[in-house]
Specification:
- The chain is mainly alpha-helical.
Length: about 350
């Protein structure tokens, strides 16, 4: 029986069908997309361990995979879930009972002579903050079942990515529409982004949070441990970061009449914490991934808004991939072979 389509039309329709089905799958799995993105990121993070243990030392593939999954669960999933839940619970408590914050604001108003805010505005700001943070972080404020499904999908995906590593990598080379040189550039960009925005950023955030927590504890700020947790999350924000924690802490001490402690917090913040942050970022940028700060800034704003907390890595990666593909297009265009990437 004669087919009404030409070979070229069949080829175009086949591609359209593949893209349409892929789009439907992505839309259907949209709320769980972070699980697959996180699995890919952790695959890149743990692959040096995998290569060292499986390819070089010839350890059992399944055993190493289970070990990596346990490391992920113990060092990343459980602590992050607990810390983010603590942060959300405290924000919700502040939103319901803002008296402590209002007392501090009233003292600042009396000291400065300016009306800062009203009780209703404070309550509304705290509620909005809790809602916004709960969008980014998986906590008990959301669906526990949804969180378990995301973690399960992430671990399940990681398991098969490691267990079927050869087939997974061959599939990338076979089905991605890029030449080997372009794939190498995209792979280098992924590795640099993961190193700079996962390993490097976590290290910077941890050091800053510890310094902030110790500073607040030394100068007598209440709940120093809780504010250490807050500082850890705030440290991921470029430009602002931990000053959003130790700055208000200094104002709190001023409002209590503890001017010496407030000045001490400001001095340590501006002289030690900020400079340690800048120094660490410069050192880690050279050692762990050469990522331009503007790429990181734009990527963070883009990624967190779309993907939540995982956007801290995915956002800069998207911007880096855009820049890489623009360079590839320029190179191919110069060679007179557009579309051969």
């Amino acid at each position: 029986m004669e087919n009404i389509y030409t070979p070229q039309q069949r080829h175009v329709l086949l591609i359209a069908a593949l893209l349409g089905l892929a789009g439907l799958i992505v839309v259907g799995l949209a709320q769980y997309l972070t699980a697959f993105l996180a699995a890919g990121i952790l695959f890149v993070v743990f692959r040096p361990w995998w290569v060292a243990l499986v390819h070089k030392r010839q350890w059992n593939r399944r055993l190493v995979t289970i070990m990596l999954l346990l490391v992920t669960l113990v060092t990343l999933v459980i602590p992050f879930y607990a810390l983010s839940s603590l942060l959300i619970d405290r924000l919700v408590a502040f939103a319901r009972h803002p008296e402590q914050i209002l007392n501090v604001l009233h003292r600042l108003e009396r000291a400065t002579g300016f009306q800062i805010t009203q009780q209703q505005n404070v309550r509304q700001l705290l509620q909005q903050g809790a809602v916004q943070v709960s969008r980014w972080l998986p906590t008990l404020a959301g669906s526990a079942l949804n969180f378990l499904v995301i973690v399960g999908l992430m671990l399940f995906t990681m398991y098969y990515m490691f267990m079927q590593e050869d087939g997974f990598l061959r599939g990338l080379h076979r089905y991605l529409p890029f030449r080997n040189q372009t794939l190498e550039e995209l792979g280098d960009s992924l590795k640099n982004n993961v190193n700079a925005n996962v390993l490097g950023q976590v290290l910077v955030a941890l050091v800053q949070a510890l310094l902030t927590g110790v500073t607040l504890w030394i100068f007598g700020v209440p709940d120093a441990l809780f504010w250490t947790v807050v500082a850890f999350f705030m440290a991921f924000l470029p430009v602002l970061g931990t000053p959003l924690v130790w700055g208000p802490a200094a104002l709190y001490q001023f409002s209590q009449g503890a001017n010496t402690q407030g000045i001490g917090i400001l001095l340590v913040g501006f002289i030690v914490i900020i400079n340690v942050d800048n120094l660490l970022r410069i050192v880690l940028a050279k050692r762990m991934g050469d990522i331009h700060p503007l790429v990181t800034l734009v990527g963070l704003v883009l990624g967190v808004e779309i993907f939540g907390i995982i956007g801290l890595v995915v956002g800069p990666l998207l911007v880096s991939y855009l820049l890489v593909l623009m360079q590839v297009f320029r190179r191919e265009n110069r060679l007179g072979r557009p579309g051969s990437v």
